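Q: Got one fold?
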Amino acid sequence: MKRSKLKLISISLFILVLVSSIFIFTGCPSKPKVYKITVLYMNDTHAHYVPYKPGNSPDETVGGFARAMTVIRKTRKSNLVSKRETILLHAGDVSAGTLYSTIFRGRMGQKLISKMKFDAMVVGNHEFDYGYHLLKKFKLESDLKILSANIVDEDGKKQFKEFFIKRFEGKDLQIIIFGLTTPTTVYTTHPKNVRGLKFLDPIETANKVLNQFHEEDLIIALTHLGVEDDKKLAESCPKIDLIVGGHSHTKIEQPLKINKTLICQAGAYAEFIGKLDIDVENGQIIKYNGELIRLTEEFEEDEKIANLIEKFKKKVDVRFEKKVAESKVFLDGEKKSVRSKETNLGKLICKIMRINVRADIALMNGGGIRASIQKGDIKLKDIYSVLPFDSTLVTINLKGKYLLEVLQRSADLKPGDGGKLHTYGITYTNKKGKIEILKIRKEPFDPEKNYKIALNNFIAEGGDGYTIFQEKGEDFVDTGLIIRDALIHYIRKRKVLTEEHLK
């Protein structure tokens, strides 16, 4: 009897311990971990590696990778103290835009972002400007994660890493970073640069990538699509927590929020570096604060990056600092101008193109003009900044009625599109969006007449969507003359540019 009683007491004690253990582990669950992370980001730097004067000759300089590195270094150091983690991302178009990119064929930008230890970059459309072979070489040589999930070859094989998984030591949070590239790349770089490649639908591609991951993961889309497409991506793929974007050169001071997805972008030309502080719980962003840090003269240049830039600069300064001529007028090549209206600089370039090949008219896409020329001395580097691409001068014969279609297409493009055209030798009106051509070189316009058109090889071969030149044009001739060289020759010969030269 006593033995049975003792056994009963032992069983009761065991049950009590078991219940207590269950209560300890399930009745009082531990508080979910909150991870603190800073995301630093740049996009569309377009070879603006050194500080520059923005706009129409202000006194200040902005930008530069050495200043950006100072912000990056200080943030990383501060985060170590405050136990925050740091992620550094580039949303595409590192190169293409200044003489540094032109001379070094994109290699300078590649070396800089590798040295600055970016965690990842997405492939931008202008990454292809110096040929896919150079991009592939960089991919093989660099430790940098170069991402794009929607670029495939003709057999459907992925050409870049779709995503990579970022983890921090001692933390169980899994961060998925995947890349998407704009399908417009097929006509916003020279078509020959992407021959044999296909750009899949970004949203369809994103959904396939996202199916591999869980709600508890922090998911970052690193995109080169433009802010409007980023909004569509956020609406279609709510599993994405953060979109760090590029391509549209949009300055987003505080992140946009579409449902639960944040969207960031840091303008262009290395004027800003974006900083986003986030608190993450169970893979969800529960708190955030963003800012764009303008890289003004108050930021010292990081010594190591400045020294690397200086090595490149020395190779070009002797030649490119030479004075070519002088200008009495400001020649407007600002992006917001050349991609929305015809400017005096666009007109000058077209005039020189027409003169060189004795064409009836000349056309130039605004996206091919990358900088202004200030009043005062014009140096060789200024002209290379205006026309950094090695575009050659092409002539095509085109019937008037197709020329009208070309101008109408330009008019129909939204302001800010690089396909907006500059012209010379043509008089036309735009009434409520409808184009009417009045004269070609002071002669009445004839829709059935063949006109000789001077244009760059980029749009002649279908760039910016102008496939009509290939489809309807005749007598295609690539002169081989680089348009930048023609501009240099014209300016050098005049010595002093005045309003008279712009007529």
Summary: The chain has two domains: 34-311, 323-502.
